[in-house]
């Protein structure tokens, strides 16, 4: 699958999100330690940038607490949904 695939270009056009960045984030999540607060905060910041949704310190704290307590159920959609709810 190449990055110039029409499917991904359509997603980029509709969302404004660079698919290369999404794939890089997904790769970084595969081996991330979601019990480590610093790692979790970095992931939240990356997702926030990709989604172009600023995250307040309070919301970041809430997300960190949720992820650290239940990191086994974490994926890109979970973080994205948490950011988009606020």
TrEMBL record:
Pfam families recorded: SpoVIF
Classification via InterPro entries: SpoVIF
Domain of life assignment: Bacteria
Protein name listed in UniProt: Sporulation-specific transcription factor SpoVIF
Native species: Neobacillus kokaensis
